[in-house]
Structure formats: C-alpha cells, structure tokens
UniProtKB/TrEMBL annotation:
Family the UniProt entry places it in: Belongs to the eukaryotic ribosomal protein P1/P2 family.
Disordered: region residues: 67-112
Keyword Oxidoreductase: no
Species of the source: Westerdykella ornata
Lineage: Eukaryota, Fungi, Dikarya, Ascomycota, Pezizomycotina
PANTHER family in alphabetical order: 60S ACIDIC RIBOSOMAL PROTEIN P1 (PTHR45696), LARGE RIBOSOMAL SUBUNIT PROTEIN P1 (PTHR45696:SF10)
Protein name: Large ribosomal subunit protein P1
Length: 112
C-alpha cells in the first residue's frame, strides 16, 4: 500500500471516529495537517466516493462475518445424508452453491 493510500485511509478513520461526514476536502485537510506530502487529490476523491453513505465502524466490525455460514450448512447436509430426505437436501445445497453473488448484488460494479 502506498503512502497516499495509507494517509487517506487513516484520515477516513479519524473522520469516522469523530462522527464527521467523509468528504474529499476534509480528507485533504487532515492529510495536509499531518504534513504528508505527495498525496494527489484523486485519492481523497476516490475514498470519499467509495465511503459515501457507509458506516465505517460497521464495515470494520463485520469484516470477516460473510463466510461463516457455508461450512455449517455443508456439515448439516452430510449428517442428514443417511436419511431418506438427505438426497433432496444435497441437491438443494448444490443449487445454492452454484448461485454466486455478482457485483450487481453488492451495489457496485467494475466500472462504477
């Protein structure tokens, strides 16, 4: 990670901790006050647009919570496989695994 990215990330965290809206101007002001040189305004603009309307504290608290349910579901299907309804559950599991989240489901795309 470059110095510009780190400085902008830290500035965004400071603003979020203080409960202040994150804007490019506020990020640039914090970076200038910290006397970090060489941070182009594009970084503050990108971070401000990416974090607009998002709760950073909530993002940090839920960083790894997305993948915990899959292993538990697979274990339940394996345990129920001995029963008559186990085969139907396995087919349902396979269909659910095939469906993957796309960028559209997350609210952003590659070129947004």
């Amino acid at each position: 990670m470059s110095t510009a990215e780190l400085a902008t990330s830290y500035a965004a965290l400071i603003l979020a901790d203080d409960g202040v809206d994150i804007t490019a101007d506020k990020l640039q002001t914090l970076i200038s006050a910290a006397k970090v040189e060489g941070v182009e305004p594009i970084w503050t603009t990108l971070f401000a647009k990416a974090l607009e309307g998002k709760d950073i504290k909530d993002l940090l608290l839920n960083v790894g919570s997305g993948g915990g349910a899959a292993p538990a579901a697979a274990g339940g299907a394996a345990a129920g496989g001995a029963e008559a309804g186990g085969a139907a559950e396995e087919k349902k599991e396979e269909k659910e695994e095939e469906k993957e989240e796309s960028d559209e489901d997350m609210g952003f795309g590659l070129f947004d």
